[in-house]
Write a structure and sequence with these properties.
alpha+beta, 15 strands, three-stranded antiparallel beta sheet, four-stranded antiparallel beta sheet
């Protein structure tokens, strides 16, 4: 059996090692690494199993083009991997757009509103958002709150719809995610309760429209979720 692969004129790849993946009902898995041995006739076979090492995985990733360029991280970045970036924004005022077939909250469309401090997490084209009760950079143990916006699920995942989304997880994508979020229309509520305000969602945002005051953090619904859990949650 010919196990060589010729690519172009200057490279020839030959089978030298193999990775075997063992799964248990798709709930657990482990991987073994094997050297490829050849007998006198050139027939390949697998050598004894060896454990994977971090250095081997890193070398393999680099050889497959997974090297990531170094970036200078500004203060608003909370965590970053090759596939994920998390950051926070302090209290600010932003324009928001509402559009839906039932014409709910249409009186809010295009108005400027105070925003709570927020935590954002983008990974693989998906955006999650939580709110902060304190207007300061959170740490790993900071408890988060429900972000009081339409288009978000219970887990804080944004229903992006036709929103323009950046690709990748570089620092440069942060501003693009925020712009896409605020420039897209809020179309529907995905959860039953978004605020502790006694008058509900509409009363909260109607009372904030055009106001220069800070967002009332006592209207936020606290969660039993820390920043550490939010960032390290598996997608």
């Amino acid at each position: 059996m010919d196990v060589g692969i010729a690519i172009g004129e200057n490279h020839r790849f030959e089978l030298s090692e193999a990775l075997l993946i063992y799964c248990e009902n798709r709930n657990a898995a482990f991987i073994t690494r094997h050297q490829v041995l050849r007998d006198n006739s050139g027939t390949p076979s697998l050598g004894p199993a060896r454990p994977l090492t971090v250095s081997f995985v890193e070398d393999l990733t680099r050889s497959l083009g997974g090297r990531t360029a170094a970036e200078i991280l500004p203060d608003n970045i909370l965590a970053k991997t090759d596939r994920m970036i998390a950051w926070w924004t302090p209290r600010q005022h932003r324009q928001m757009f509402y559009q839906n077939a039932e014409k709910k909250s249409e009186e809010l469309n295009g108005r400027i509103f105070p925003q709570p401090a927020l935590v954002w997490r983008a990974q693989d084209g998906e955006l999650k958002i939580r709110a902060l009760k304190q207007n300061r950079r959170p740490n790993a143990e900071t408890e988060l709150a429900v972000a009081p916006f339409w288009n978000l699920s219970d887990g804080g995942t944004l229903c992006t719809g036709s929103m323009r989304r950046p690709t990748g997880s570089s620092v440069a994508t942060v501003a693009l995610w925020e712009r896409g979020f605020y420039e897209s229309a809020f179309t529907h509520a995905n959860v039953g309760r978004l605020t502790r305000h006694p008058g509900g969602f509409n009363a909260l945002w109607n009372g904030l429209a055009g106001k220069r005051k800070a967002f009332p953090t006592d209207s936020l619904i606290g969660l039993p979720e820390t920043l550490q859990q939010f960032i390290c949650e598996r997608s």
